[in-house]
From TrEMBL:
The keyword Chaperone applies. The gene is dnaJ_1. Residues 3-65 form the J domain. Keywords: Chaperone. This is Chaperone protein DnaJ. GO terms for cellular component: cytoplasm. Pfam families: DnaJ (PF00226). GO terms for molecular function: unfolded protein binding. Gene3D superfamilies: DnaJ domain. One of its GO terms (biological process) is protein refolding.
Length: 204
C-alpha cells in the first residue's frame, strides 16, 4: 500500500488543516469527471484524508503502518508473522530453535522498550515545562518559550503514537502466546558414521 502521506503530498508533521487543504486540492484534480482523474486515484485521496484526518486512526497508522480498514488483528498478525520470519532467518537450523518463544520475547522486548520511551518522553515534557518557566524576556514572541512548547507538543504526539503501537503489539503477543513450536532436539554429542566421539580427560 502506498504511503498515505505521499498520496496527499504532505509531510508527517502536517496539521489537520494541511490535510484538509491537500484533500480539497487533490479531490478536484483526481475526480473521475476531470481530465486526468480516475476513480482509483480519487478513492485513494479520500481514504488517505479519512485516516490521517482523524487523530486516533492517524496514530494507529503512524505506529504500525496499518489503517483501521486493516483491523487490529490484521496488524497484530502481521507483526507475529514478521517476528516468526526473523527468528527462522537467524539460524541455518531453525527447526532446532524455539521459534515461537523467540518471537514472543522479541514482541515483549518491543513493548517494554515502548513503555520505557513513554516514561522518558513524559520526563522530557516535565523538564521542558520546568525550564521554560525560568526564562524571562521582554520579547513579545518569546522564541525560547515557543521552542519549549514545541518540545512538549512533540512529546505528547510521540506518547500517543507509542501508546497506539503498544496496543497493537500487546495484541500480537496474545496471538503469539496461543502458539507452541515443536523443535528438533539438538544432538548432545558429535556423531560420525555411527561412531560417537567422547572426549575423556588426559592422564599423564
Amino acid at each position: 500500500m502506498r504511503n498515505l502521506y505521499d498520496v496527499l503530498g504532505i509531510s508527517r508533521d502536517a496539521t489537520t488543516e494541511d490535510i484538509q487543504k491537500a484533500k480539497r486540492r487533490l479531490a478536484r484534480a483526481t475526480h473521475p469527471d476531470v481530465a486526468g482523474g480516475s476513480k482509483e486515484a480519487f478513492q485513494a485521496v479520500e481514504e488517505a484524508a479519512r485516516v490521517l484526518g482523524d487523530p486516533e486512526t492517524r496514530l494507529l497508522y503512524d505506529a504500525t503502518g496499518h489503517t483501521p480498514h486493516d483491523g487490529l488483528d490484521e496488524a497484530a498478525e502481521g507483526i507475529v508473522w514478521a517476528e516468526v520470519g526473523k527468528a527462522m532467518m537467524s539460524s541455518d537450523k531453525p527447526e532446532r530453535l524455539d521459534i515461537v518463544g523467540l518471537a514472543r520475547n522479541s514482541i515483549s522486548d518491543t513493548i517494554q522498550t515502548a513503555r520505557s520511551n513513554i516514561k522518558k518522553l513524559t520526563a522530557a515534557k516535565v523538564n521542558a515545562a520546568r525550564m521554560a518557566g525560568r526564562f524571562r524576556t521582554s520579547l513579545p514572541n518569546d522564541p525560547i518559550a515557543q521552542r519549549f512548547a514545541k518540545i512538549q507538543r512533540d512529546a505528547d504526539a510521540e506518547i500517543e503514537s507509542t501508546k497506539a503501537k503498544i496496543k497493537v503489539f500487546e495484541r500480537a503477543l496474545q496471538i503469539a502466546e496461543a502458539y507452541e513450536f515443536e523443535r528438533e532436539p539438538t544432538p548432545s554429542a558429535t556423531a560420525c558414521d555411527g561412531w560417537v566421539f567422547v572426549q575423556t580427560p588426559r592422564t599423564w
